[in-house]
Structures are given as structure tokens and as C-alpha cells.
Write a structure and sequence with these properties.
Layout: H1 2-24, H2 41-57, H3 59-75, H4 81-92, H5 94-127, H6 129-149, H7 165-177
Length: 179
């Protein structure tokens, strides 16, 4: 079990190092200053202004850094992706930003799902066996009642309602049925 935790920490450290190396090569205009994730709208404005000039000259590098940062936040479930959505619109335009963020959200959520299945399942089952059994019972009850009413199971789309019960059901199914 501890090897899985070490694997998760190694994956996190490798992703952090890769993102740091990529961002350290990015020159923000005249003055080199460290890049960091924005935490409010004012920091977002400053970051967008600093990156806009660089993006015009080096579109590929700016796109690679943005994609890496977005996937990092999504893969490790770090809050704040909404500010990156706004930054994508400011840097790449509203339509390109929309398509880019939609694709990156899907890929990042897939990475998060795979990471949680590979590294998190055993910890959850080991430390919270009663909660897992309770969730298994609730999901089974919902499946049976949905089949009886001929309703689709977890039918809400995670794109439109990111905190809907459907999202939580689909995220938990892997852990619940492989226990």
C-alpha cells in the first residue's frame, strides 16, 4: 500500500518538475519573473497581460505551457481551473479557448480518474470500509430502482453540471465495483 503512495508522490513530483521546467523557460516580456497560478482576477489580469505579448511571438510555446498547466490542475484535482478558462479566452480567443478548455478538461479528468484508480482506491477501501460499503449499497439500490423505472443511471452530463450526482457516481463506480 505504501508503494502506491510513493508512486502517487513520484507522479506528482515529476509533473511538478516538468511544469516548472517548462514555465522557467518562458520569458514574460522584458522582465523575467516567476509564473504562478492566478488566485484572483487581479492576478489573472496581470498574467494575461504578461503572456499576451509572448503568445503573439511564440504561440506554440505559450500553448504548450497553458496545456501543461491546465492538465496539471485537472489531473491532480487542484482547484482554480475556472481562472484558467478565462485566461484561455484572453490568450487564444473565445472560441479557441472554449474548444481548448473542453478538450483539456476531458483529458485531465481522465488522468485524474486513472490516478485515483491506480493510487487512491486501496487507501479509501482500507481507511473507510464502512463508507465504501454504504456507497455500494446506495448505488446498487439506485441501479435497481432506475431499472425498475427504466431511467438511465447517472444521466446528468458532467460538462454542464460539474458537481451533479452523475459526476460523483461515475467517479465512484470504479472503486465501488472492483472492491
Amino acid at each position: 500500500m505504501w508503494r502506491r503512495l510513493a508512486g502517487l508522490l513520484l507522479a506528482f513530483a515529476a509533473a511538478t518538475a516538468g511544469l516548472w521546467l517548462l514555465s522557467s523557460r518562458l520569458s514574460t516580456g522584458q522582465a523575467r519573473r516567476p509564473l504562478r497560478f492566478p488566485s484572483d482576477l487581479e492576478e489573472l489580469r496581470e498574467l494575461a497581460e504578461a503572456l499576451r505579448d509572448y503568445e503573439r511571438q511564440h504561440r506554440g510555446a505559450a500553448l504548450a505551457l497553458f496545456c501543461a498547466a491546465y492538465l496539471y490542475k485537472q489531473s491532480f484535482a487542484i482547484p482554480g481551473s475556472s481562472l484558467l478558462n478565462v485566461l484561455a479566452g484572453a490568450l487564444f480567443g473565445p472560441w479557441t479557448g472554449l474548444v481548448l478548455c473542453s478538450a483539456l478538461t476531458s483529458v485531465g479528468a481522465t488522468f485524474c480518474y486513472l490516478l485515483s484508480g491506480a493510487f487512491g482506491k486501496q487507501f479509501i477501501v482500507y481507511y473507510f470500509p464502512d463508507k465504501v460499503a454504504l456507497l455500494q449499497g446506495k448505488v446498487l439500490h439506485h441501479i435497481i430502482s432506475s431499472v425498475c423505472r427504466q431511467e438511465p443511471f447517472c444521466h446528468r452530463s458532467p460538462l454542464w453540471m460539474p458537481f451533479s450526482p452523475g459526476t460523483h457516481c461515475s467517479n465512484c463506480l470504479r472503486w465501488l465495483w472492483q472492491h
